[in-house]
Amino acid sequence: MVPGPNTLFVLKNSVSSGMKGGYLAACGVFIGDAVLMFLAWAGVATLIKTTPILFNIVRYLGAFYLLYLESKILYATLKGKNNEAKSDEPQYGAIFKRALILSLTNPKAILFYVSFFVQFIDVNAPHTGISFFILATTLELVSFCYLSFLIISGAFVTQYIRTKKKLAKVGNSLIGLMFVGFAARLATLQS
To answer: Which residues does UniProt call coiled coil?
Structure first.
């Protein structure tokens, strides 16, 4: 697992909104990844990878969405309040939705799944769907374990940060800057 925007988003939400916020973000990532894996298996991801205009649309949507998320983080940091407050239940739905969109607009994930499944699934073998399902389930379980570790770690960090307001602002600012970096890298990504 290479930390990227999805990982950072889950970690940020586990720190700012507790374990519930972290797991809602993780669920958005899991569902988004499952959709991308299915698209890779169905051949749609290959079409996106080999069609420059489609790849560029996904790439720029992803970059703009990362910048949007960064602006929300920066705004909340400057205002001195948490973007996803624990007492505000409707924000939990926003966490899930943002994670899902973030996952679906990640062309690096599309490229990964296309190249990953090709290595392990023989398209000429019978029952490729079963092989795909087993491999996709394994990937999701590994992702669940990895993100659970981050969520639990984030919950512990939250206890420390609550007493250090300045540290929390610096942390949010750094996360925002990392999203800008991810957006710039995504905008310059080649298929």
So the answer is: none
State what percent of residues in the chain have pLDDT above 70.
Answer: 88
79, HSE (Cβ side, Cα atoms, 13 Å) = 10
Q: How many CA atoms lie within 13 A of 105 on its CB side?
A: 25
Digit-coded pLDDT (tens) for 108-158: 888 788 777 777 777 677 888 888 899 999 999 999 999 999 999 888 877
Of 29, 15, 11, nearest in space to 144 by CA: 29
In whole angstroms, what separates CA 25 from the centre of its chain?
8
Largest CA distance in the chain: 59
Identify which has the larger pLDDT, 55 or 32. 32
> What phi, psi does 189 have (nearest 5°)?
-70, 140
Where in the chain are the domains? Answer: 5-187
Contacts of 90 (CB under 8 A, 6+ apart): none
Residue 6: is it exposed, middle or buried by C-beta count within 10 angstroms (0-12/13-18/19+)?
Answer: buried
